[in-house]
Amino acid sequence: MTKFLRTFSFHAHSLLLLSAILVTFIQMASSHRSPYEFKQRKNKSSFTSTAAKAAVSSFSTEKSSNSTPPTNAKTSAPTVKFSENSGRLQRFNVKEKSPVGVLIKRVVDLLRETRQALTTNQILEACNVDMIENKNVFENLRNNPKVVYDGRCFRYKSKYGLEDKDQVLKFIRTFPNGIDVDEVKDAYPTVMEDIQAMKAAGEIWLLSDKKKETIAYPNDLRVTINVDDDLKQLFREIELPHDMLDIEEDLVKNRMKPATDTVKRRMALALIANSEPKKKVIDFSKKKLTNSHLPELFKLPSTSKSR
C-alpha cells in the first residue's frame, strides 16, 4: 500500500509539472493575440494550475488521514463581529467630544431618573461619560448642589430632601400662603402623581393658570391665612349676581368648578313637590256638632260681651 501511494504521488507531481510547462507554451504561442484573449487564456491556465494543486493537496490530506493523526492540529478561531462594539465606541467618541456642560447635564439627568447611587464605571456604562479621564466633569459634579458624592458613588439630591407623599404634604402645610409646585417636583419620580392624589382627596388646593397648576395651598382649617386689607376691600366691592345660575356660569368661565349645582337642585325640588300629596283642608262649618250638651262653648265672644 505504501508503494502504491508513493507511485501515485510521483505521478501527481509529474502531472503538475507537465501542466505548468503546457501553460508556459500556450502563453508564448498566444503572445501575438489580443490582450482580451491573452487574459482569458491566463485565467484558464491559472484555473488548471489551481485544480492540479487542489488535487495534490486533497491527496496529501487523504494520505495524512490514513496515517497516524497529527498531534498539533490547529483549531479555527471563532469569528468576531465588531459591529456592535464599533457602534458603541463611535457613540462614546461623539459624546466625549461634547462640551463639559452637556456632559454634566447628562449625568445629572441620569441620577435624577434612576435615584440610585452610581459609581463612575456605572455612569460610564449608562451614558458614556468618562469622569476618570475628564477631570472637569468630575470636579463639577462633586461640587454640584444637586449631586451628593460620598467618595465612591454619586447620587441625586433634591432641593428639600423629600422622599414620600407624607413628607410632601407636611411640607406644603408649612406654607399657608402657598408654594410653587416647581419647588417640589424634583423630590422623587412620582411626586406629581402624589400631588394630584392630594388634590383629589381634598388635602390641598392647586391654583392653576391657563397652562398648568402652579401654586399648592394646604386645605387645613387650622392654618391661619393672612389676607391683605386691600384684597378684602376689593372682594367686598365685587357685586355678585342675584341668581346662583349666573354665579356658576361666571365660575365656569374663569376655569373654576362650582361647589353647587343649582339646576340639579331645582329639578330635585320640583320633583319632590310634584310627588308629595296635597293635604286636605277640613271645613268644620259643614260638620255636625256633637257637643250640643255644652252650648256655652259655641257662643260668640261678641254676643257674650254685649250681654
Automatic annotation (TrEMBL):
Limits of the TFIIE beta domain: 88-163
Assembly behavior: Tetramer of two alpha and two beta chains.
Major location category of this protein: nucleus
Family in the record: Belongs to the TFIIE beta subunit family.
A GO molecular function held by the record: TFIIH-class transcription factor complex binding
GO biological process: transcription initiation at RNA polymerase II promoter
Composition skew (Polar residues), residue ranges: 68-79
Cellular compartments per GO CC: transcription factor TFIIE complex
Top-level taxon: Eukaryota
Family matches, as InterPro entries: TFA2_Winged_2 (IPR040501), TFIIE-bsu (IPR016656), TFIIE_bsu_DNA-bd (IPR003166)
Native species: Rhododendron griersonianum
Biased composition (Low complexity): 58-67
Subcellular location(s) per record: Nucleus
Name of the protein this chain belongs to: Transcription initiation factor IIE subunit beta
Protein purpose: Recruits TFIIH to the initiation complex and stimulates the RNA polymerase II C-terminal domain kinase and DNA-dependent ATPase activities of TFIIH. Both TFIIH and TFIIE are required for promoter clearance by RNA polymerase.
Signal sequence segment: 1-31
Keywords noted in UniProt: DNA-binding, Nucleus, Signal, Transcription, Transcription regulation
Renumbered residue ranges of the record's region Disordered: 58-79
